[in-house]
Prior knowledge:
Layout lengths: L1 E2 L19 E4 L4 H12 L4 E5 L6 H11 L3 E5 L8 H6 L7 E4 L7 H6 L1 H29 L3 E6 L12 H20 L5 E6 L3 E2 L14 E2 L1 H13 L4 E2 L2 H12 L2 H4 L5
Parallel strand pairs: 2-3, 2-5, 3-4, 5-6, 6-7, 7-10, 8-9
Antiparallel strand pairs: 1-4
The chain binds NADP nicotinamide-adenine-dinucleotide phosphate.
Amino acid sequence: MTVPATSISYPAPKDQRNADRPVLVLGARSDIARALAHALAARGHPLQLAARQVDRLERDRDDFAVRHGVPVSLHELDVTRPETFADMLSSLPVAPRIVISAVGLMGDQDSNAADPALAMQVFATNFTGPALFCEEVARRLDAADMSSALIGISSVAGDRGRARNYVYGSAKAGFTAYLSGLRQKYARRPLLVMTVRPGFVATAMTQGMDLPARLTTTPEALAARILRALDKGRPVHVDPLWRVIMGIITHVPERIFMRLRF
Ligand SMILES: NC(=O)c1ccc[n+]([C@@H]2O[C@H](COP(=O)([O-])OP(=O)(O)OC[C@H]3O[C@@H](n4cnc5c(N)ncnc54)[C@H](OP(=O)(O)O)[C@@H]3O)[C@@H](O)[C@H]2O)c1
């Protein structure tokens, strides 16, 4: 289902250079996605917001359009239904030039490990769904033969499996590896495939968790760093502090790592 673009009249976008570079955002209700969408709309990019029950985004659509003066359209997308991807992409008002996947589901590790249906939902939401969507959209971006970018939000949780989080972590590991492969596939083409591996971010996903303040960022700060990395054409973005932390964690010998509890 495609909800028609809002009928309100738009003020002129601030940066006309981006007026023909629409951004498609998957998981557009996510806090990180919203922050990215605001930052990109402020640069004059039209927005195509995709989510489940997308009519819940009607107020956001009007807010983006009024605040940033860009066209905003809404598109229904459940990332666990790959059979709908091609039709959804074909229904977009114009082909996007930047695509962001911000869908994700963490759930509770013990419940995920105990219930195969929950685990499958976590795998499908974080790995198989976004990976298959990225495959389809990368093919289309490549066929357009113009400068474009595909940004996949994975997680440092995928860098090494931990007892506390391995269902979600392994799904993110799969997505990280998939994006790496896509990046190599299109390396000689004008398509940048970018992987973002955030550490802790204060969002709905982490609400109620006791996160260390010094290691936790906001969606807005992360969005600003992602856009800086995009501007520089960086293929991978990890916060420098998390790069150090995960560099250490991934180098701990397995015999020691398996006994650690964190
Ligand atoms: N927060 C963190 O600390 C952190 C750290 C590392 C990576 N990440 C990743 O960052 C991304 C954004 O997460 P967030 O922190 O902003 O959390 P969030 O606010 O919970 O966003 C997750 C989004 O995924 C959407 N989603 C879930 N299942 C879906 C499905 N089947 N089809 C389409 N959309 C679906 C949700 O939509 P509904 O509204 O329909 O549920 C929600 O908007 C995720 O990939 C997450 O794994 C987050």
